[in-house]
């Protein structure tokens, strides 16, 4: 008879219940979370988990911003209309929430004055090694404002403090000047080029690898 079997029934029942709860609802530092709100230039900005109800606004913005987004989004056989259908968001929101519950993803909607303003995501979260990949897009209504910079800073602070990361990487498609500038201005360093890293916008594209360690960011 094993040692475990010699435990009192009550202790065994508690241990089993604990394991079951952890399996159904695992806990991972930094998720779920709401970051902000903070006020800047009269705008109220916060990052919060995606909701199924974001579908309509997400679809409207993604359709309107096709020319800006498509070159950098993963290539697809589907038309842009299919890719921006409300059903796509609902599938994505469910799948993101499942992956986040397992601790591998920190998906956030950027909310500006209560409106959908884009997405900021920590993907491929590796809690054992303290690393993750940052991905983002901002609705064109908010380009040229402080929304991209402030959202990035909210997410990075959260990643280093609550999630417990020590390194954040961001692959950027060659030619994506806006993304590169936002990263560089916030302390990210270019570490090299990932040849044919991803199929985006209908072609295999080299990506620059940008990365941030806490000591690189003087604003932390
Ligand atoms: C990347 C992104 C989040 C940056 O947000 P943003 O609000 O445009 O950022 P900023 O306004 O701070 O712009 C940064 C710089 O890029 C420039 N820029 C913006 N859009 C540009 C474009 N389409 N082409 C060239 N330069 C551009 C801006 O003029 C600014 O440079 P400046 O300060 O010298 O004038 C946003 O452009 C975006 O969502 N792009 C589409 C999706 C994407 O590329 N995501 C990143 C994938 S790695």
Textual characterization of the structure:
The chain has seven helices and eight strands. It is α+β, with helices and mostly antiparallel strands and 220 residues long. The chain has a single domain, classed as Aminopeptidase (3-Layer(aba) Sandwich), CATH 3.40.630.30. Strands 1-2-3-4-5-6-8-7 form an eight-stranded mixed beta sheet, with helices on both faces. The longest helix has 17 residues. Coenzyme A binds next to helix 3, strand 5 and helix 7.
CA radius of gyration is: 20 Å
In terms of quaternary structure, what is this?
single chain
What portion of residues is helical? 25-40%
Shape: globular
Number of strands: 8
Largest β sheet strand count, sense and barrel closure: 8 strands, mixed
CATH class: Alpha Beta
The order of strands across the largest sheet is 1-2-3-4-5-6-8-7
List the total number of helices: 7
**Whole-number tally of structural domains:** 1
Broad structural category: alpha+beta
The CATH level-2 architecture is identified as 3-Layer(aba) Sandwich
| Strand coverage percent | 25-35%
CATH topology assignment: Aminopeptidase
What is the CATH superfamily label? Gcn5-related N-acetyltransferase (GNAT)
Bound molecules: coenzyme A
Give the termini separation.
54 Å
Give the H and E element order: HEEHHHHEEEHEHEE
Low-confidence stretches: none
The chain-level mean pLDDT equals: 94
InterPro entries: Acyl_CoA_acyltransferase, GNAT_dom, Ribosomal_N-acetyltransferase
Pfam families: Acetyltransf_3
Organism: Allokutzneria multivorans
Protein name: GNAT family protein
